[in-house]
Amino acid sequence: QVRLVESGGGLVQTGGSLRLSCAASGRTFSIYNMGWFRQAPGKERVFVASISWNGGRTYYAESVKGRFTISKDNAKNTVYLQMNSLKPEDTAVYYCAAPEKAFGTVGSTTGDFSFWGQGTPVTVSS
What we know:
126 residues; mainly beta; seven-stranded mixed sheet
């Protein structure tokens, strides 16, 4: 089984920055696409960003494009989400995710991913 553990969330003021980390274990991390999702209070879990297994392609939700950056360090078995220019609407629990199969086309929906971390909360104050 794949285990994903997110960290780095917290409370930040509008315009501030946070860097989320997702440490993976239990599989050959380097050959898997990875994704970040978030779930705001009272809302469904939605796509934030994803990255191809080799880091060659990245995808972002329109709401975070230009502010967030996803990256992947295969040597450390870790995926990052650098969040800049944070807004109150970014407040949510952030989850990292991994797909069932290696390689392939990187996904951007919850259905494209099978393994999820426990989430790390991010709160952006007005």
